[in-house]
Structures are given as structure tokens and as C-alpha cells.
Amino acid sequence: MQTVLITGASSGFGAACARAFAKLGWRLVLTARRKGVLDELERELAPLAPVHVLALDVRDRAAVEATLSSLPSEFSEVDLLVNSAGLALGLEPAHKASLDDWDTMVDTNIKGVMYCTRALLPGMVARNRGHIVNIGSVAGSWPYPGGNVYGGTKAFVQQFSRNLRADLLGTAVRVTNIEPGMAETEFSKVRFKGNEEQAQRVYTGTEPLVAQDIADIVVWVSTLPSRVNINSIEVMSVSQSWAPLAVHREK
After folding, report:
1. How is the chain split into domains, by residue range?
2. CA-to-CA distance for 202 and 26, rounded, in angstroms?
3. Active-site annotation, residues
4. Along the 251 residues of the chain, how does pLDDT read in single tens digits?
5. What is the CATH topology of the domain spanning 3-179+215-235?
6. What pTM did the predictor assign?
């Protein structure tokens, strides 16, 4: 039986991944800040698979190191890390954006991925098996107005994933960066700080990706033969594509 540790498991892509791997009978280590939501998820999934939940803020380096180094023996050999914890805050242009929001995105999307990966990677290398799946974004490759620091953090995830692959040459540890486009989860609700109406306008008239779409991809890349490494996948809804290059014209 294999073990998966999923960050940001209380909602969105993380929760969908938890349900998908529970159906496969994998051991689940589920982390998020909202312990109450994790407890509900544990009650839902426990009939399908062993579940261990942890209230954890991935921005807290000391907590990540202490928590992930002291997992119960049944869950301690993590075969798959899904770095799903992440967020976007605000859509203001850079000269108006909140520095507090920028700090939160850097601390979560960059440092959280670093801390969790560094905590579990030595064990994977020692066992010569394992897989890191990072949830990036199309924003890591393609800019848009207001994407400023969020896009920068996801560009880090993209390049960090590539460099992990380079460092791990000669081992059997795999690394994949999955880069979703527009997806209807709590993402926009978080971005707009609980403004449901503003969040819903993002998806009006479209058929966006849903969390299960990404979970299906995570399961696929992680259950391929061990000789296969999917380096990266960029995935969009058919409702989304690239726009013409912007041109400012004087009136």
C-alpha cells in the first residue's frame, strides 16, 4: 500500500486528490490549516483507506519540519507528495497591490513548497522511490494584468520542479509540475477575500475546469510505470485560450 501526503487538502484540488487516492486504497496524510474541515474529510474517507490528518500551516518552517519528521510509523514512508497548498490574493496592478498579500503568496506558494519538499525528499532518495507533484499554474508561464506576484510564485514552482528533476538524476524519484488554467474551486473566493459575487463573475458564461479534473491528472501521472516521468502538464478548459497581445493606443 502506498502513502500520499497532500497539502492544502481541506478544499479544491487537494480535497479532490484525497478522494481520488482514497478510492485507490492509498494511505492518506492530509494537511491544511482548517482542522475541522480535515476531520470531516477523515470521517468521509476512513471507510475507504487509512487516513491521518494534520493541522499544518506550510508557511511555518519549524512546524513543517517537526510535523513531517514525526509522522506515525504507518504513514512515515511517503511515496507521493502533492504540494497543493497555494493561493492568489488580489487582482490589483503592482503599484496598487498589497505588500501583505504579496508576502502571503510568497510564503505559501514558494516557501511552503520548499519546506514540504525538503522535509520529505531525503527519505524518498534514501528509499530510491517517490514522487513530488507540484500544483503550478498557467500563470507561471503566461502573464495577465494583476497576476504580478502570483504569476511570479508559480514561475518559481515551474523552475523549482525542473531543477529538482536535474538534482534527482540517478535516482528513481520523480517530479511533475501540473499547471492548471481557470478552475472553479475556492480559488477566486480566496483571491477576492470572500466576495462571492466577484468570485462568481470569473466563471460566468464559461465551463471551467473543476477540481476533479486536476485530481484525475495527478492520479494518472503518479500511477504510470516507474520508468515514466511526466515533467509538466499545462491544462486549460476549452473555454480558455491565449488572447491577442495587448496594445495600448493613445486616444
Report:
1. 3-179+215-235
2. 35
3. 150
4. 999 999 999 999 999 999 999 999 999 999 999 999 999 999 999 999 999 999 999 999 999 999 999 999 999 999 999 999 999 999 999 999 999 999 999 999 999 999 999 999 999 999 999 999 999 999 999 999 999 999 999 999 999 999 999 999 999 999 999 999 999 876 666 675 666 777 677 788 889 999 999 999 999 999 999 999 999 999 999 999 998 899 999 98
5. Rossmann fold (3.40.50)
6. 0.94
